[in-house]
């Protein structure tokens, strides 16, 4: 019998501004909080709320984890890659 796998997770990529924010993370607690939020978004890219705006570009979404106090701004590509635009500590 073939092993059962869960649903495929979305690939996570970071914009230049989000990558710069990552460089400034110093504590293990902040890394853990961000990792938790990224796992949630990678499992279900539609979990975040759409941010109203211009429909010409990609639809930005916002995910907030109230427990870890993290907010992610991101968009999802047609191939389900999640592009994190900004990581914002709440």
Polypeptide structure, described:
With 90 residues, the protein is an alpha+beta fold. The chain contains two helices and five strands; from the N terminus they run βααββββ. It has helices at residues 16-23, 28-43, and strands spanning 12-14, 49-50, 61-65, 70-76, 82-89. The protein has a five-stranded mixed sheet. A hairpin with a 4-residue loop joins strand 3 (61-65) and strand 4. The longest helix has 16 residues, at 28-43.
What is the compact description of this entry?
The chain has 90 residues and is of the alpha+beta class. Helices cover 27% and strands 28% of the residues. The protein has a 5-stranded mixed beta sheet.
Nearest-integer average pLDDT: 86
Net shape: globular
Largest sheet: 5 strands, mixed
Strand % is: 25-35%
Gyration radius, in Å = 14 Å
Task: Give the N-terminus to C-terminus distance in angstroms.
Answer: 46 Å
Q: Write the H/E string, N to C.
A: EHHEEEE
Give the number of helices.
2
Q: What is the strand tally?
A: 5
Unreliable parts: none
Structural class: alpha+beta
In the sheet with the most strands, the strands line up as 1-5-4-3-2
Helix % is 25-40%
């Amino acid at each position: 019998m073939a092993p059962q796998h869960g649903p495929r997770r979305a690939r996570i990529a970071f914009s230049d501004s989000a990558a710069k924010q990552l460089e400034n993370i110093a504590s293990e607690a902040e890394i853990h909080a961000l990792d938790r939020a990224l796992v949630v978004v990678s499992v279900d890219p539609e979990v975040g709320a759409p941010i109203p705006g211009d429909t010409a570009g990609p639809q930005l979404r916002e995910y907030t984890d109230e427990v870890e106090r993290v907010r992610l701004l991101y968009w999802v590509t047609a191939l389900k890659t999640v592009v994190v635009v900004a990581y914002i500590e709440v």
